[in-house]
Structure formats: C-alpha cells, structure tokens
Amino acid sequence: MKRLIYSLVISAFLLTGCSKDESIIYYADGADAPSGLTVGTPETFGFGVIVPGAVTSDGGSPIQAKGIVYSATNATPTLNVNDETVKVDGNVSTGTGDFSSLVLGLTANTNYYYRAYALNGAGVSYGDVKTLNTGQAPVVVADMESEFFEEGWQVEVQAVPKISFYNVLDMYQTGYHVRLTVDGTKVTVAKQVIIANLSGYGPASVEGTGTFDGKTFVLKLKFTVSAGTFSPNPATEVITLP
C-alpha cells in the first residue's frame, strides 16, 4: 500500500505547540486528502463574520483541523504562514461534519476572499473561493445605567443579525467595548480585557452574567485590575435598547 508523506509549515495559531518555522510531517497509508468542503451563507457585521461550513469525507485519515482561511488581498488564500495577508479562523475543529467559524477584527465595508480548508494525514484540501463584504456594522444608541459609575449615559450597541452576539462600544471609556453572548434570556460575559491601561490600576478585565428580555440587558459584572480594588464589585449595569 502506498505510503503518503505530507509536510506542511503551519503556525502555532493552527496547531498548538508548533512555531512558525517548524515542519510538521503527517503520515497516512492509502489515504486521500479530505473532500466535500463547502461553506454556507455567512452572517456578516462590521467587526467580524460567522461562516458555517462542512466537510463530508476525511479521505480515510482523521481530519486534524478544519475551518476557513481568508484574506482581503489574496484571491486564493492557503495555509501558507509566509503570506502575512492570509489568516486562519480561531475556531479550529476536527473530524468530518459541520463547523462554524467566528472571525473577529475584520474591517467594515471591506471585501474578503475566504474558503474552507481541511487537513488530514494525507494533505490539505480547500473548497471553492467565496467573497463577502462585511458591510456596515449595525449600531443602535442605547441608554445605560451604571451602579459602578453611579450615572447614566449613552453607549453604542452592535448586534449580529440572527446571531445572539452583541458588542457594546464605549461602555466604560471611549474606544473600549464589552462582548456579550445571549442564549434565550441568559447573558454571558466571558472574561475579557476591556481597558488595556486604566490609569492607576493597570489592565482592567471584566466577566459576569445577566439577563436579556429583548430590550434591556441587566448585567452583574465583576472587575479585575492589577492594582487597587473597585467597589461595588460585582456591579450592576443596565443597558436599555431603543
């Protein structure tokens, strides 16, 4: 049986523990590269995109990574770490079947090339190249009440259509934001840095839980800083959409 050897240089972003200059060698007896790579209609917003996809066949060797590669300038993006314009989504998964790639940090009103990829012991395969335009981020101006700051003000809220994912801009200080995810009425704020250098306190992080009734977020947020303390902590923050 033919023994296939595939060598690929890939970044640690895709395979944990491997630096950009290392060669990873995969071995597979009698296997083919994956096939049946497709992507569905993406959900786009100003700062990111969610792309559904699928891989139907592993070619006889388990799929070690699948997802999408994308670029604003390279019309045929590949897993080539020497091309700084090509990026890999951060939601790498294994095996055949469906996947969902969440990519943040994109530029609004920008055209991107993207396609599915899948890697197994025989090689790497790609789906057809697709294009998308991120469009303008939907923004609503919401009213906020803050137990921590003891005052109310307006914030901008970006909402992803049909996806329970929200970005609250300038929630604490101009230029910073908090990401909220919603499952039904339950809100989760995964731990995240909201201010890289808060004067006198250093980096400020937040995490918490809350509820959402379709109009109002009621959040219990806990703050972490490298110096000093906040009070109250956790604090209650209320954001009311128009």
Radius of gyration over alpha carbons? 21 Å
User: Ends: how far apart?
Assistant: 66 Å
| Helix percentage range | under 10%
Task: Report the average pLDDT across residues.
Answer: 79
Report the major sheet. 8 strands, antiparallel, barrel
Number of helices: 0
- As residue ranges, the low-confidence spans are 1-26
Could you say which overall geometry the principal axes of the C-alpha atoms support?
elongated
Oligomer: single chain
**CATH hierarchy: architecture of the largest domain:** Sandwich
Instruction: Find the CATH superfamily of the largest domain.
Output: Immunoglobulins
Number of domains: 2
Structural class label: mainly beta
What series of H and E elements makes up the topology?
A: EEEEEEEEEEEEEEEEEEE
Number of strands: 19
How much strand? over 45%
CATH fold type of the largest domain: Immunoglobulin-like
CATH class of the largest domain: Mainly Beta
Read across the widest sheet, the strand sequence of neighbours is 12-13-14-15-16-17-18-19
